[in-house]
Q: What sequence folds into this?
């Protein structure tokens, strides 16, 4: 059998022994990045996430069915049009880029539908509260 030693630790000694170890382990596990830097990274990430324009399933199908492929320049112009609409307080916008028409839900940055010039012949667009011609 093991003999019991007569060395008893005080509560403070036990606290220091067990609690300080876990604090040291935690502090070593976290990187030494200042809070300001973490905040800046998150804000930059949020801005990048907000700038992405999404296409609804319906709009993607419309583009695919009509063999319409946006160039990078057209996509940038479309995003700029959505940004301009947002700055003016438009919520449902018609954005015209070259011979293409897009209905965009501006707050969600989502293209709801897309039309080419042949379908836009009637020149009637409903359920919008503003238009941007790029």
A:
């Amino acid at each position: 059998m093991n003999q019991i030693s007569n060395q008893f630790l005080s509560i403070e000694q036990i606290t220091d022994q067990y609690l300080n170890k876990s604090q040291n382990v935690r502090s070593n596990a976290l990187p030494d990045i200042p809070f300001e830097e973490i905040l800046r990274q998150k804000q930059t990430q949020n801005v990048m996430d907000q700038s992405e324009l999404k296409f609804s399933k319906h709009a993607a199908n419309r583009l695919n069915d009509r063999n319409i492929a946006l160039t990078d320049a057209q996509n940038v112009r479309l995003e700029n049009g959505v940004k301009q609409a947002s700055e003016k307080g438009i919520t449902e916008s018609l954005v015209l880029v070259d011979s293409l028409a897009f209905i965009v839900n501006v707050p969600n940055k989502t293209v709801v539908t897309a039309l080419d010039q042949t379908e836009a012949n009637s020149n009637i667009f409903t359920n919008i509260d503003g238009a941007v011609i790029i």
